[in-house]
Amino acid sequence: MRPPAITREEGSRTKSSPIEGQRKAQYEEYDSEKKKNAEEIKRLKKEIKELSAAKPSEIDEELIKMSGLPIKELKEFLNKPPEEVERILDLKNMDLRKKLDLIKYEIFKKQEKILDITKQMEDFLMEMDQDAISKYSEPIQKEISRLENKIHLVNVNVLEMRHMQKKYVRIKQSLQEDSVYFESTLKKFEEDIAKQQTEIQRLQEVKDEAFTLRDKTRNALAKLEAEVIAEGIGREQELQDLRRKVEEGRAYLEKVERKLVPSVKTLAREESDDADRLVETEDLAAKEAIEKSLSKLKHVTGAKDEMDVIRKFKTQNETKDRLVKLKETVEKEKRDLEKRKESLESELEALKFAQVKEKEQNEEELEKLKNSIVKKKSEKIRLESEFENDEKQLNDIIEFFYDLCKLMKGFEDTPAPERNEDEEIPELIETVEIKIAALMKYVEDNGILDEMLTDEMLEENLGIEEPFDKKGEGEKEADKTEITDVPTRTFLKRQSQLIVEAKTRKRGFNRDPIPGYK
């Protein structure tokens, strides 16, 4: 049978072999959880927008499930004002920061402990006889070098973690500054939008007033136009009546003239006076007709004399010209108002488009900030898992020292130390040094280092069935007198060869890196 130290070491290697696969599986699980969390955040954002207008009077079960908080704490948050909730969340944030500082302090203490262990191991190796150690403790040397490499990797990883922590703190500060800037910019944009809405309402009122004035002007112009048309029609009818009467008088005079022409030829002298009287009569009739027409015009227009009638006609012409000019002016103002309306509508559309675009940009920035927060949380989880792995490596180192003490308990009267979490590592190293010194003394006293190796002795030593550390307390004295029952240099060399062959088959002489940092 082989000593238990070899089986113990092989078991630890067997346990550490699937760590790579476990790490990949954990990363895949983290990615899937990250996607689920992103979808959940989007869904919660929509629900927050819907529920932000009014505070719910009752807590539904879906809100309790999505929040992940106890019902009592959630009710307290809902019943408190936002300032109180913000203060409570700030206090919780401070508690989490204190826990983070405590974790940093523990990492620092463990790092100092690891450095102290490394220094003590170096002092321990310098004090030992290198020639004697190389003959029978080659596996121990390799394991120590492997542990030193692991300790170095732990130190490097701790430095990397500190660097990453500082980097994330700077990123967090920059994100907080950006959030303040974006919040102030958003408020400014909201104020500008409110001002623009007020200006749009004012312009809309101006537009409505312009439309009302346009309608009133159109109605007034239509009334004036109808009155002018009616007056023109009346005047036209009066003129036609006057023309008809003048034509009738003219026809009557011509008829009278035709009747009087033969008598004039025969009785020229007698009728000459009558002709003069007739002409005078016609002139008087024409004057009477004209005076009658003027009197009718005076009656229609309400004028006092002929000059008043002429003045009224001129006034009507001037009124007509003014109405035409007023119509042209109103139409021009109408065109200007329509152009201004089109320009204001185009400006309104541009402002709406700019507002929508700015809103989309703000939503994108907010989404980026939330994604960065999710990434930081996942990074924090990853660092915590790495810290657990480092702590596990440190526990493996301590376990190795306990196994080493058990392996050498037959060479020294001091009993092997029991496993105790409160025991300091330097005390454990001192115990190992005492046992190794006892082993060296035992080997020198029995002359084992001076024995020559042969193939027959190798086969005989390999045939030992019971290890020295499995015997009872009553057989220790017999073991000291019988050299064949004590593990010799040959047996130790064979153990180291088996360990080297196992490493060659499994890892190809590569140092085992710390899990999670490959």
Write a brief structural summary:
The chain is an all-alpha fold and 518 residues long.
Cα distance spanning the termini: 36 Å
Q: Helical content, roughly?
A: over 70%
Largest sheet: none
Global outline: rod-shaped
Mean pLDDT, to the nearest integer, reads: 71
Number of helices in the DSSP assignment: 13
Count all strands and give the number. Answer: 0
Low-confidence stretches: 1-17, 263-267, 452-486, 506-518
Report Rg.
Answer: 59 Å
Strand content: under 5%
The arrangement of helices and strands along the chain is HHHHHHHHHHHHH
Structural class based on helices, strands and sheet pairing: mainly alpha
Keywords: Coiled coil
Biased composition (Basic and acidic residues): 21-36
Region (Disordered): 1-36
Coiled coil: 186-259, 316-393
